[in-house]
Amino acid sequence: MPNDYPHQAPPTTPGPYGGQGQHGAPVPYVPGPYNAPRPYGGNPHFAPAPPLSMPSSLRAARTTTYVMVGLALLASVAVGVTEGARGAGAAFGGNIFGVVLLVLACFYGRAGRGLRVTSLVIAGVQILLGLSATLRGNIGGPIALVGAVVMVVLLSQASVGAWFRRPRAHGA
Hints:
Helix content: 40-55%
Oligomer: single chain
Order of helices and strands: HHHHHH
Strand content: under 5%
Radius of gyration: 28 Å
Number of strands: 0
Structural class: mainly alpha
Mean pLDDT: 78
């Protein structure tokens, strides 16, 4: 009888609360194959740590936003010099959501998941506006289109998602 269970303690009568073990003591855990999930959570020493610094892809997304809006301003000034105020407004109009992305990018260091989703939605709208402006021959259209596509690609990466899901202290 003692050799029937060589890798476990022999079964005993049910404890007072219905579980196995003598006098309600828990049965020792025997790990399963292939890193099967452990009862009561995994080992905290091997849990993935939250990212401590902003991922490089998120820094690149923020820099892309700054460059995109800066180029849109330069293009609108150049068009304004040659064609007047109406042309400058049209050149900058295709990049209007780029300005909104610029404001959102200022908060990437401390905001949560909603900011990432909002940025992705606005970048998607910016893609549509940039495509429309490009097809009309607007000089600001390709800037908006390429910048917004780069933003969507960079903000969709897993490391960026982990950054926005990280645990934060209250007010940080």
